[in-house]
Design goal:
Radius of gyration: 21 Å
CATH class of the largest domain: Alpha Beta
Enzyme class: isomerase
EC number: 5.4.2.7
CATH superfamily of the largest domain: Alkaline Phosphatase, subunit A
Number of strands: 16
Number of domains: 2
CATH architecture of the largest domain: 3-Layer(aba) Sandwich
GO biological process, one term: nucleotide metabolic process
CATH topology of the largest domain: Alkaline Phosphatase, subunit A
Strand content: 15-25%
Structural class: alpha/beta
Number of helices: 15
Helix content: 25-40%
Keywords: Isomerase, Manganese, Metal-binding
Family: Belongs to the phosphopentomutase family.
């Protein structure tokens, strides 16, 4: 037994799912990986290509070719929509329930009342029209998340030059206690003001009101975030199962923010290069365990509809994936996957419902194809199979298809 490593390239989908025309018509035509390669033809991602990226896209593009020796598969999203929080719960072996769908406007009275009871200064914006968002202590806004499936996520956005993030988290916790949507994202950035947040306030369908986070500039400097979920039982997920067996668990990036763990080593953060440095250090030190890293900056570039930035982050990730490959022995497995798509060329800034790649590396196997998986939980089941533990709530192991013969 050795190391089982999962790297989630956040939002790196490989083509729209079959149900998209019916359930998400605005995602028709999405293919995040393909469109980035087409628009940035000089992108340098040799390791992803060697691992079989073009195989999962399903076609070659100019000099970007499939690799017949690659070990590959694709996975559907079992959760409803295309959500990072639910996607990661699925990757960890959960069958996420269909979340409550509710605009913030239906909960604004309750949230306002809760915050005022706890001594916060609260006002509504805009004053003369609806739907509205809340402004707290002149530095925090609360409203709908406009970047993912509408009605499932509320955002608590803040200007961290004006308030400490520890106080923002207290506000977020009060919102979380009050509402029942699947997620409350509590975050903030430096170098912005309340005016930046309010100037990025938008309304969609005369029903959803929130702050366009990329437009506000909140991601650009000193970004901090905590994802507060609802209705997820971590005890049935792979990290808890492994911890009960005293198997080390290491989480880096956004996965450290949104997956609950009691004993795992956590390295949250956003900067891709720094996260890989920490992650590689732990891989060098720990010779037996489960490692998972989320590369969030790809998703941020997708929300910003910034193809060039997306490509640059992919290049950083690719280079570091190459470093990790050189460190692995015959007992180690590396999986490169994603949690949904976020095609920056599709014409909107929200996630896209796409198949995700499953790129598999072990130094002694080649030309394995695990097909199209019905759920991303299959990777969690494979981790459990690899370590010989109980299975998570959901998923079917594909270990038999990738073991060394």
């Amino acid at each position: 037994m050795g190391r089982f490593i999962v790297i989630v390239l956040d939002s790196f989908g490989v083509g729209q799912m079959m149900d998209v025309p019916e359930v998400r018509p605005h995602d028709v035509g999405s293919n995040t990986a393909k469109h980035i390669i087409e628009q940035v033809p000089d992108i340098h991602i040799p390791n992803l290509l060697q691992l079989g990226l073009m195989n999962t896209i399903g076609e070659d593009i100019d000099n970007f070719r499939s690799n017949p020796q690659a070990n590959i598969g694709r996975s559907e999203l079992k959760h409803h929509g295309a959500d990072s929080f639910l996607g990661h719960q699925e990757i960890m072996g959960t069958n996420p329930p269909e979340p409550l769908n509710q605009p913030f406007s239906e909960m604004i009275d309750e949230v306002e009342g809760t915050l005022m009871q706890h001594g916060y200064k609260v006002m509504r914006y805009p004053k003369d029209s609806k739907p509205q968002i809340l402004v707290v202590n002149d530095c925090v806004t609360i409203g709908d998340n406009l970047e993912t499936d509408l009605g499932q996520v509320f955002n608590v956005s803040s200007a961290l030059d004006l308030i400490d993030f520890s106080e923002v988290k207290k506000i977020g916790a009060l919102v979380r206690e009050t509402v029942k949507v699947s997620r409350v994202i509590t975050f903030g950035g430096e170098g912005i003001t309340l005016d930046n947040l309010l100037n990025a306030q938008k309304t969609i369908e005369h029903k959803y009101a929130g702050v366009d986070a990329p437009e506000s500039g909140v991601y650009k400097k000193g970004y901090q975030v905590v994802h507060m979920g609802y209705g997820i039982n971590p005890k049935v997920q792979i990290q808890s199962i492994l911890e009960n067996e005293s198997i080390p668990v290491v989480f880096g990036g956004k996965v450290a923010d949104i997956i609950q763990t009691q004993k795992g080593e956590l390295y949250p953060g956003v900067d891709t290069e720094k996260l890989f440095e920490q992650f590689i250090d732990r891989i060098e030190t720990i010779k037996h365990g489960f490692f998972c890293l989320n590369v969030q900056e790809t998703d941020l570039a997708g929300h910003g509809e910034d193809v060039i930035k997306y490509a640059k982050i992919l290049e950083i990730a690719d280079q570091n994936i190459g470093k990790i490959i050189t460190m692995l022995n015959e007992n180690d497995y590396l999986i490169i996957t994603a949690d949904h798509g976020n095609d920056p060329t599709i014409g909107h800034s929200q996630h896209t419902r796409e198949y995700v790649p499953v790129l598999i590396y072990n130094k002694d196997i080649s030309s394995r194809d695990i097909g199209i998986r019905k759920t991303m939980s299959d990777t969690a089941a494979t981790v459990a199979d690899y370590f010989g533990t109980n299975m998570p709530q959901d998923g079917e192991s594909y270990l038999k298809d990738i073991v060394v013969e």
